[in-house]
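Thread: quick sanity check before group meeting

JM: Hey all, I'm pulling together slides for Thursday and realized we never actually wrote out the predicted structure for the chain we discussed last week. Dropping the sequence here so it's in one place. If anyone has concerns about the input, flag it before I start.
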Amino acid sequence: MDKTSLIGIIFGIIAVGVGMVLKGVDIVALNNPAAFLIILLGTIASVTIAFPIRELKTIPKLFKILFTEQKSVKMTEVIKLFSEWSQIARKEGILILEKKLEEIGDPFLKNGMSMAIDGKTPDYIRDVLLEEIDAMEERHAVGAQIFSQAGTYAPTLGVLGAVVGLIAALGDMNDTEKLGQAISAAFIATLLGIFTGYILWNPFANKLRRKSKLEVRMKLLMIEGILSILEGETPKEIEQKLSSFLPTDERQIFLEDGGSKNEKA
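JM (edit): ok, ran it. Output follows.
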């Protein structure tokens, strides 16, 4: 499970709930079915109008991505793998790596290595794999946009809910006590709209974009690794080139460890 998504939601609920109590607001005021109906169903309606059904069908999968920690190999491990393959290819030829294809679990990497072993040119391999990345980014962008749009609609629907509540409240101004309660209840919709928009939907969109960026970075590293093997680069050269994809502190540690091993070798 991606704990940060769950922790963030819990912190958001605590912040609003405790803040309301500290401000002297009765939590019972949140028991407003009309406000929930306007915000939640209204947001669903807006998103449904904005996107075709084939894109909306991906929403359950998007929630799974948001709350699931994706099992991915570390970049350092992938770099070491390319370093090993480079050493094998330089000694026995790239065709010997065909035996390694069955061990590759990543479809993107497997496809790239298959093309390299089949003798495709570096330019062809790069073009095919970059097109695949572009298509993936487009799919990911649509998913993030669904939540981004929901985050735009929800606060505005909150204002709509408040207006509806005020219309009902001002319809009978004889009882001032009930009038105050009705006006207070009217703004619950605004609260819910802002809460869902800025604590749920917009952060969800940002997390999807962030996860997409990390996946793209890994795939770009794989492209460079495949092409480096084709060009006959040494394991050390590959490690130095691919380590540029790592964060600065992690890159320094990786190169120091790799350097010490090379010295021992």
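AS: nice. The radius of gyration is 27 Å. The chain has a mean pLDDT of 88.
JM: adding both to the slides.
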